[in-house]
């Protein structure tokens, strides 16, 4: 009898325990249901009590925490994606100079990140023997700062980032570094982020951002990605400028070649005209030579005839001279005879 009573008491205790456990399980299920509903409806007012530490509730809370982390990650990704889209549109639609483009980029970047000051350095490639960084644009409190800064490799933090090709994030900014000037006075920045603008491991420029607040990692990653896009745009712009310059040089050379071809064509025409004139003069010269040869033949014949006549005249003259000489001798002989006769006559006259 006592044994039956003991069994009954034991059974009642187990029943009461099971009933209590069932009640707790029901309460946990109800809490889990409410928690799950709040999780589905994104009700942030629902919080897990400290005494609600069952595995189911802890699992649901873990899911909630994971969901919150995913929401943060999704928000960060959306922020990065929207930012990249915004700046890609700026880079794509900008048709102005490099300085105007840098002004738009750094002004929008300072505003989008919520920082207080920013600067954009671009590598000057016009120097053949060395490279240096020129501060193209600087903004502080949404106002453009007209600064003239040139940074050489290894010079300062910007020059160090340029050489190392790695970003630099400082939460303790050196005292000698820039101050942030606002309408309320001056303050030294507590956070400084310097990022290289890389493409194919080449640095095209440096982005420098200063802030009084901490810059989250996803924002720094965004700046690095944006730097790659800006570097690509700068490279594309410079290649376009080189192609434009080469095209202009090619056009100038083509114009020069066309001018040279025109000059050569004129020279060829002048040469052809000169050759035709020379050919005509050559024919005239040949005709003149032929005429001169004909006249020379006539003159030769005349000269031969004249020479023959001269010889004939000489012979006749010689004959006349001989004849004259003979007549002169006869005259002299007659004169002597006459003188002899005269002497004889004188002698006869004297005798008479």
Automatic annotation (TrEMBL):
Coiled-coil positions: 8-35, 243-351
Quote any Pfam family the record assigns.
GAF_2
Q: Residues in domain GAF?
A: 97-244
Keywords (alphabetical) are: Coiled coil
Query: In its UniProt entry, what is this protein called?
Result: GAF domain-containing protein
Tell me which species this is from.
Answer: Flammeovirga yaeyamensis
């Amino acid at each position: 009898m006592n044994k039956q009573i003991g069994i009954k008491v034991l059974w009642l205790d187990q029943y009461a325990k099971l009933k209590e456990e069932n009640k707790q399980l029901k309460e946990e299920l109800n809490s889990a249901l409410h928690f799950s509903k709040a999780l589905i409806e994104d009700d942030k007012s629902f919080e897990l009590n400290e005494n609600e530490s069952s595995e189911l509730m802890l699992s649901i809370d873990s899911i909630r925490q994971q969901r919150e982390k995913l929401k943060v990650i999704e928000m960060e990704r959306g922020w990065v994606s929207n930012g990249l889209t915004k700046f890609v549109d700026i880079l794509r639609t900008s048709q102005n100079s490099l300085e105007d483009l840098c002004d738009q980029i750094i002004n929008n970047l300072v505003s989008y990140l919520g920082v207080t000051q920013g600067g954009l350095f671009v590598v000057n490639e016009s120097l053949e023997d060395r490279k240096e960084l020129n501060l193209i644009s600087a903004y502080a409190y949404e106002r453009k700062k007209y600064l003239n800064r040139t940074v050489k490799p290894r010079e300062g933090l910007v020059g160090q980032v340029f050489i190392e090709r790695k970003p630099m994030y400082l939460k303790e900014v050196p005292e000698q570094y820039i101050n942030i000037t606002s309408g309320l006075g001056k303050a030294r920045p507590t956070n400084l982020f310097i990022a290289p603008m890389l493409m194919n491991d080449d640095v095209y420029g440096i982005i420098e951002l200063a802030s009084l607040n901490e810059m989250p990692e996803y924002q720094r990653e965004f700046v690095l990605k944006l730097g790659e896009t800006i570097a690509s745009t700068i490279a594309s712009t410079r290649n376009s400028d080189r192609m434009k310059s080469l095209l202009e040089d090619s056009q100038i050379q083509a114009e020069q070649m066309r001018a040279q071809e025109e000059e050569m064509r004129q020279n060829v025409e002048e040469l052809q005209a000169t050759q035709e004139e020379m050919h005509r003069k050559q024919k005239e010269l040949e005709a003149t030579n032929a005429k001169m040869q004909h006249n020379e033949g006539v003159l030769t014949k005349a000269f031969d005839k004249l020479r023959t006549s001269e010889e004939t005249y000489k012979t006749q003259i010689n004959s006349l001279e001989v004849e004259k000489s003979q007549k002169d001798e006869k005259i002299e002989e007659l004169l002597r005879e006459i003188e002899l006769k005269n002497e004889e006559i004188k002698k006869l006259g004297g005798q008479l």
